[in-house]
């Protein structure tokens, strides 16, 4: 009975429930998209391209940052496994094309793993011949100059191959490719082709057992892409972290937005519910009426949000990949779990909001309900107070932890939840806060705007519970935007300062092909005017079996006689001149952790999994917590075998001859290097702004919905004012001043949220009491929130005033 009545009432309240539908639709889509991103990160699916024709691939352990070569003798072991038809060893090494584009060199036999097919020409048959793929832009015939390592050689193009592969490839005769690979007895990977009837799962177990004594992995399915794209290793972890943080934030915002929108929609029907109570409707029937209406809208909104969430999730993954946070080759995966979770969260938040919103009218006595129907004044309840105190207490605790316990960028992990807890607590107590804010703003508003301000203050004071419902989204928008954006600018400022402190070089040499050969360092040092030069090879290593597991440390391969002149390294013991052969300079913290002093030996597992015993040559302090090793040692255990950059002490003009001899090299002065050095921070900032922007867009929609609904509810009030002589202009000025009060109240509460978040974070990060970032950001946030509030209120009021006052008053009587 009540369900049928609920469905009928929806037809007459399209506007109010349309706002609820929009909030629920967006909330469900965002939550399900975040769930899909998390599943994508967990699955870490990288579909193979060049290895698509090989059901199984034997490769070095893909858990290491750097690609580990495979013993070529494993090919014979793999060939003896039942179900294996053929094994195809392949190598991979960087090749620079004449136009400066990067490509990868392979054996011609490895072309079968894609499979490539000769589109024109023939296979390479000697050391001076190559086959290029159709993506390389090199045509058949003639000679092409290829740069491999630090040397350039001419090859004759005898064929053009074609395959559905994005990366550019160059195929050499097998013997020539192995010579250029320069790792005797090693190959990059082994592709395994199966006999007819054999399955990848069945052969994989036997093959894994056959190579169990080696540090290799047997990959199948989407895992094969990790052998083809080693840079994707660990990409899923960043997505999991981002989706968890963003998803949690989105869920909390969604619950507040949905609760506020539905609550206001139900509150404007108190008069209707009071009449229902007066004619004998029970509280239980009223609850079922409200819950039935809400459930119908929520189910419809979540059902339509499901297909949209897939497109939204794929778009978000594409944006993350474009910013360098996620691998471009990673495939988006969204199964049933995130969909069910999104539906459950959306339905639960909607029903809880409807239950709470309708509770007041449902439990009130009929006579009291009729009396209070036109103006809600009761809002306080014990559960509301308890939840508010829990949120505020939790936010206070996190603020203290952030300021006193956290250190450095990790403080952001508690700063974000701090903002949400404070926002939640303040939102729950917003009607009480609204009374205080209206009392504080009363005299300035009246003094500034005269009669319209006086009426606006009277209205907001009389309708403070509903005004609080409009203040809350303004508080959420300004508070969250200010807190999250200035968190990023403060962190970026601290990182830029640390990088500037660590960079003592006057110029930085990089390469358009992705790496600089180590031989270039000696060439640079020989140039007139150059005082010092040091290669920089970025990787990571581990201290095996230290503590509860392998402790990871950043490693920089450097040139010993140039590092102190180009980097902010201060040696506390030992000498970097002794950083030769198998040696290491440890940061002070790590030396103390390991109990290692100069002359001691420490065991480290390098980026490709190789374990080495290193002598401690020095202990250093600096603005970075990295182990320093000889560049020659580190390069031998990296995938590319080249330095990422060369730091130079000396004028940029001294490097002009170098650019002439090596056109692929790029030279940047110190200012340019400092700007480029923040690339990682700029990427993180871009991602944070994207995610924050989505949440704020959702909050803004809630703000507009709330204001439009609240204005529409006042048709009768506006009609009566017009019947007693008020003009359109007077009413618009009155509601304009009301929106100013709402904006100022929301901005003030939002400032509290941002301050209790940002001040502890600034203390933890750099010891100051104020966040870093231009004041213009805050002015834009406040101006946008105020302008949107004013615009939404005035436009919706103008629309309502289009109805003649007699008709409006009669329609609502």
UniProtKB/TrEMBL annotation:
Originating species: Saccharothrix saharensis
Main subcellular location of this protein, as a coarse class: membrane
Chain segments annotated as transmembrane: 239-265, 286-306, 336-357, 385-406, 426-445, 465-487, 686-710, 740-763, 775-801
Protein name: Putative ABC transport system permease protein
PANTHER family assigned to the protein according to its UniProt record, in alphabetical order: ABC TRANSPORTER PERMEASE YTRF (PTHR30572:SF4), MEMBRANE COMPONENT OF TRANSPORTER-RELATED (PTHR30572)
Family, as annotated: Belongs to the ABC-4 integral membrane protein family.
Record localization: Cell membrane
Classification via Pfam families: FtsX
UniProt-recorded Gene Ontology molecular function terms: transmembrane transporter activity
InterPro entries given in the database record: ABC3_permease_C, Macrolide_Exporter_MacB
Assigned keywords, A-Z: Cell membrane, Membrane, Transmembrane, Transmembrane helix
Domain ABC3 transporter permease C-terminal intervals: 245-359, 690-805
Topology in membrane: Multi-pass membrane protein
Gene Ontology CC: plasma membrane
């Amino acid at each position: 009975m009540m369900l049928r009545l609920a469905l009928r009432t929806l037809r007459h309240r399209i506007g109010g429930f349309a706002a609820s539908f929009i909030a629920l639709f967006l909330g469900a889509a965002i939550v399900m998209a975040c769930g899909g991103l998390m599943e994508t990160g967990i699955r870490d699916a990288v579909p193979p391209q060049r290895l698509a024709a090989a059901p199984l691939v034997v490769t070095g352990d893909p858990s290491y940052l750097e690609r580990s070569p495979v013993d070529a003798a494993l090919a014979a072991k793999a060939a003896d496994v039942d179900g294996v038809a053929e094994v195809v060893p392949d190598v991979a090494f960087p090749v620079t094309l004449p136009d400066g584009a990067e490509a990868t060199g392979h054996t011609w036999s490895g072309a079968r793993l894609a499979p490539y097919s000769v589109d024109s020409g023939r296979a390479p048959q000697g050391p001076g011949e190559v086959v290029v793929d159709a993506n390389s832009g090199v045509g058949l015939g003639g000679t092409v100059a290829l740069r491999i390592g630090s040397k350039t050689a001419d090859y004759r193009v005898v064929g053009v191959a074609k395959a559905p592969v994005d990366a550019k490839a160059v195929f050499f005769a097998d013997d020539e490719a192995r010579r250029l690979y320069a790792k005797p007895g090693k190959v990059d990977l082994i592709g395994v082709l199966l006999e007819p009837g054999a399955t990848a799962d069945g052969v994989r177990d036997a093959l894994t057992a056959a190579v169990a004594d080696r540090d290799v992995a047997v990959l199948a399915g989407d895992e094969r892409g990790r052998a083809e794209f080693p840079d994707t290793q660990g990409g899923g972890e960043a997505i999991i972290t981002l989706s968890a943080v963003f998803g949690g934030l989105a869920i909390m915002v969604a619950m507040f937005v949905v609760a506020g929108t539905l609550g206001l929609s139900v509150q404007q029907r108190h008069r209707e519910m009071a009449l229902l109570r007066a004619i004998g409707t029970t509280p239980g029937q009223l609850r079922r009426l409200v819950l039935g209406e809400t459930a119908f809208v929520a189910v419809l909104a979540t059902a339509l949000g499901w297909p949209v969430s897939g497109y939204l999730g794929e778009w978000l993954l594409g944006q993350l990949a474009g910013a360098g946070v996620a691998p471009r080759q990673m495939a988006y995966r969204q199964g049933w779990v995130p969909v069910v979770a999104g539906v459950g969260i959306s339905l639960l938040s909607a029903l809880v909001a409807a239950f709470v919103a309708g509770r007041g009218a449902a439990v009130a006595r009929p006579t009291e309900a009729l009396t209070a129907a036109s103006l809600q004044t009761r809002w306080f309840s014990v559960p509301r107070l308890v939840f508010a105190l829990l949120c505020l207490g939790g936010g206070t605790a996190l603020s203290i932890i952030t300021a006193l316990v956290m250190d450095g960028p990790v403080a952001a992990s508690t700063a974000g939840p701090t903002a949400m807890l404070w926002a939640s607590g303040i939102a729950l107590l917003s009607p009480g806060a609204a009374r205080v804010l209206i009392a504080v703003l009363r005299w300035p508003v009246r003094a500034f705007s005269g009669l319209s301000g006086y009426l606006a203050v009277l209205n907001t004071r009389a309708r403070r519970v509903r005004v609080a419902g409009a203040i809350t989204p303004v508080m959420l928008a300004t508070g969250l935007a200010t807190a999250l954006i200035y968190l990023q600018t403060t962190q970026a400022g601290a990182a830029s300062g640390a990088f500037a402190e660590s960079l003592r070089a006057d110029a930085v040499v990089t390469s358009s092909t992705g790496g600089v050969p180590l031989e270039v360092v000696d060439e640079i040092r020989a140039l007139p005017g150059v005082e010092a030069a040091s290669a920089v090879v970025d990787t990571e290593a581990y201290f095996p079996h230290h503590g509860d597991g392998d402790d990871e440390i950043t490693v920089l391969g450097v040139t010993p006689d140039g590092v102190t002149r180009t980097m902010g390294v201060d040696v506390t013991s030992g000498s970097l001149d002794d950083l030769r052969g198998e040696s290491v300079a440890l940061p002070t913290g790590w030396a103390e952790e390991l109990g290692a002093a100069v002359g001691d030996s420490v065991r480290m597992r390098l980026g490709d999994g190789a374990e080495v015993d290193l002598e401690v040559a020095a202990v250093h302090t600096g603005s970075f917590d990295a182990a320093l090793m000889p560049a020659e040692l580190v390069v031998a255990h990296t995938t590319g075998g080249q330095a990422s950059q060369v730091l130079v002490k000396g004028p940029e003009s001294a490097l002009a001859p170098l650019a002439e001899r090596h056109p692929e090299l790029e030279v940047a002065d110190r200012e340019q290097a400092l700007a480029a050095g923040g690339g990682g921070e700029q990427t993180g900032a871009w991602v944070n702004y994207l995610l924050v922007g989505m949440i704020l867009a959702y909050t803004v929609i809630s703000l507009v919905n709330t204001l439009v609904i609240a204005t529409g509810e006042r048709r009768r009030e506006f009609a009566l004012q017009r019947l007693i002589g008020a003009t359109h202009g007077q009413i618009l000025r009155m509601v304009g001043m009301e929106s100013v009060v709402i904006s100022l109240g929301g901005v003030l509460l939002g400032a509290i949220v941002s301050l209790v978040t940002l001040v502890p974070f600034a203390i933890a990060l750099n010891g100051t009491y104020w966040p870093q970032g231009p004041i213009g950001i805050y002015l834009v946030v406040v101006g946008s929130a105020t302008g949107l509030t004013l615009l939404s209120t005035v436009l919706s009021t103008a629309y309502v005033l289009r109805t003649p006052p007699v008709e409006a008053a009669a329609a609502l009587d």
